[in-house]
Amino acid sequence: MPAHDLSLLIDCARQAGQVALSYTGATALRWDKPLGAGPVTEADLAVNAMLHERLMQARPDYGWLSEESDDNAVRLGQSHVFIIDPIDGTRSFIEGADTWSHSLAVARDGEIIAAVVYLPMLDRLYVASLGGGSKLNDVPIKASATPDLVNATVLATKPVMAGVHWAGGDPGFKPAHRPSLAYRLGLVGQGRFDGMVTLRKSWEWDIAAGALIVTEAGGICTDKTGAELRFNNSDPRLNGVLAGGAAVHAALLGNLAPT
């Protein structure tokens, strides 16, 4: 049941925060992943090991997909799968910033049913369960009702703002940035920002938890073509992400240049 899984994810996310905070970002051992996949630290691996042990002990029949674990095709035959990013925003963690997060989700037959995004340095806990709404620190949250892009502030990186991506060469909104994709989606679910756009391929573990937080807060979260997001794919990369309140999501989708 989603609520049963959510309680487990919350407990594990808080423990993940304790593990991560036992390391100092600037001095934690770090190295770069192959093929330009970005940095990783000993804290990422310690959090991943703890989460794998606790979650798989509690749900031994679930599959496992994590940024910091070797992938295993066995998960494709399992109805329930944990989708985990031990530390989303590793660069921020290394820099000593407070906007990195732990992202934990459960997918059932490709649909996310329980989700947690936790920022331990801010003690900010976003949670959602399918049909159960979204909360931030136990307070229900709602996505923005901003009616158009003109008045919208949207989380987007500088490359996304390039005119080539937008009809008429203009995105039409005011941009803002946060480093963690999971946190960006939490902020959209919270209504703090009106939308979020990423146009490049996005790993499932960056998006899974935040996507449910947005939709259970009354927003919409799709790939960049407007297609429904499905999880536990053989290739765990999504075709970009658009998220926001209904009006902003529709406007973002309509304003993208044809590809």
Summary of the model, kept short:
With 259 residues, the chain is of the alpha+beta class. Helix content is 29%, strand content 27%. The strands form four sheets. A seven-stranded mixed β-sheet has the order 3-4-5-6-7-8-9, with helices on both faces. Strands 11-10-12-16-14 form a five-stranded mixed β-sheet, sandwiched between helices.
Overall description:
This protein is an alpha+beta fold. The protein has two domains: 2-140, Fructose-1,6-Bisphosphatase, Chain A, domain 1; 153-255, D-Maltodextrin-Binding Protein, domain 2. The protein is built from six helices and 16 strands. The strands form four sheets. It has a seven-stranded mixed β-sheet, with helices on both faces. Helix 1 runs antiparallel to helix 2 and helix 4 (181-190) packs parallel to helix 5 (204-216). The N and C termini lie far apart (39 Å). One of its GO terms (molecular function) is inositol monophosphate 1-phosphatase activity.
Provide the descriptors you would attach to this structure in a database record:
single chain; 259 residues; alpha+beta; Fructose-1,6-Bisphosphatase, Chain A, domain 1; D-Maltodextrin-Binding Protein, domain 2; 2 domains; seven-stranded mixed β-sheet; five-stranded mixed β-sheet; 16 strands; 29% helix; globular
Order of helices and strands: HEEHEEHEEEEEEEHEEHEEEH
Major sheet, described briefly? 7 strands, mixed
Query: What is the mean pLDDT?
Result: 95
CA-to-CA gap between the ends?
A: 39 Å
Could you say which structural class the secondary elements and strand pairing correspond to?
alpha+beta
Number of strand elements = 16
So what's the CATH class of the largest domain? Alpha Beta
What is the radius of gyration?
17 Å
What share of the residues lie within helices?
25-40%
- Number of self-contained structural domains: 2
Hey, roughly how much beta strand do the residues contain?
Answer: 25-35%
Spatial strand order of the main sheet = 3-4-5-6-7-8-9
Spans of at least 5 consecutive residues whose pLDDT stays below 50 are: none
Q: Do you know the CATH topology of the largest domain?
A: Fructose-1,6-Bisphosphatase, Chain A, domain 1
> What is the CATH H-level superfamily of the largest domain?
Fructose-1,6-Bisphosphatase, subunit A, domain 1
Structural shape: globular
GO molecular function: inositol monophosphate 1-phosphatase activity; metal ion binding
Protein name: 3'(2'),5'-bisphosphate nucleotidase CysQ
Keywords: Magnesium, Metal-binding
